[in-house]
Design goal:
By secondary structure, the protein is mainly beta. It contains no helices and 11 strands. Strand 5 and strand 6 form a beta hairpin. It is globular, with a radius of gyration of 14 Å. It starts with a strand and ends with a strand.
Length: 119
């Protein structure tokens, strides 16, 4: 059974930091591209950061230089270190795992964790 379980969200003041974790199970973690997405109320879900199996990373322009995505394949966990947080970072953050192989796409999502940044 595939599971992605996020943790680490909460309430923080502007300028503060949070570290999100996403623990995965039920699939071959190391070959998947892992991503963090976020969704604010009334808005679409957008990519925040992504890391592939080789460790290459991609960030949205809004978080470049402030957020860092990393993965620990031994622990089947992906992290999102968020520094210099702004009120506009307030959203539900979702963990995603995706792999395209053999003509198939495997795409898994966590349940989300709330991040609230107060001004």
């Amino acid at each position: 059974q595939v599971q992605l379980v996020e943790s680490g969200g909460g309430l923080v003041q502007a300028g503060g930091s949070l570290r999100l974790s996403c623990a995965a199970s039920g699939f071959t973690f190391s070959v998947y591209t892992l991503g963090w997405y976020r969704q604010a109320p009334g808005k679409q879900r957008d990519l925040v950061a992504r890391i592939n199996g080789g460790g290459s990373t991609t960030y949205s322009d809004s978080v470049k230089g402030r957020f860092t995505i990393s993965r620990d394949n031994a622990q089947n966990t992906v992290y999102l270190q968020m520094n210099s947080l702004k009120p506009e970072d307030t959203a539900v953050y979702f963990c995603n795992a995706v792999r395209m192989a053999w003509g198939r796409t495997s795409d898994y999502w966590g349940q989300g964790t709330q991040v609230t940044v107060s001004s």
